Amino acid sequence: ALKRFSAREGISWSVAAGDSIPDLPMLEAADAAILPSGLSHMVMNPRKRVFRGSYCFSDFICDELSDLLPTGT
């Protein structure tokens, strides 16, 4: 679905965040993946960002998106 949506909308680069087994195909299909450490061994995406913190996963996602997006976006 991520690849089809990206092609349809003309999106050339994608980031996916997920925290469960059903999210694995999406995390693999994205150009960058944000996920908790419990899924890390199941995702081979070379641009994965792994959450190992004790704070909120959604805050980690926001922090990682800030790092991944070009300046001024």
Name the helicity range: 40-55%
Largest β sheet strand count, sense and barrel closure? 3 strands, parallel
Topology, number of strands: 3
- Mean pLDDT level: 92
Count of DSSP-assigned helices: 4
Note the quaternary state here.
single chain
Structural class call reads: alpha/beta
**Radius of gyration based on Cα positions:** 12 Å
Order of strands in the sheet with most strands: 1-2-3
The poorly predicted ranges are: none
Instruction: Give helix and strand order, one letter per element, not per position.
Output: HEHEHEH
> What best-fitting shape do the alpha-carbon axes yield?
globular
Q: State the end-to-end CA separation.
A: 25 Å
Q: What proportion strand?
A: 15-25%
Describe the overall structure.
- By secondary structure, the protein is of the alpha/beta class.
- It is 41% helix and 16% strand.
- The protein has four helices and three strands.
- It has helices at 2-9, 24-29, 37-40, 57-68; strands at residues 15-17, 32-36, 48-51.
- It has a three-stranded parallel beta sheet with strand order 1-2-3.
- Helix 3 (37-40) links the parallel strand 2 and strand 3 (48-51).
- The longest helix is centred in the last third of the chain and has 12 residues, at 57-68.
- The radius of gyration is 12 Å and the shape is globular.
- The N and C termini lie far apart (25 Å).
- The model has no long low-confidence stretch (mean pLDDT 92).
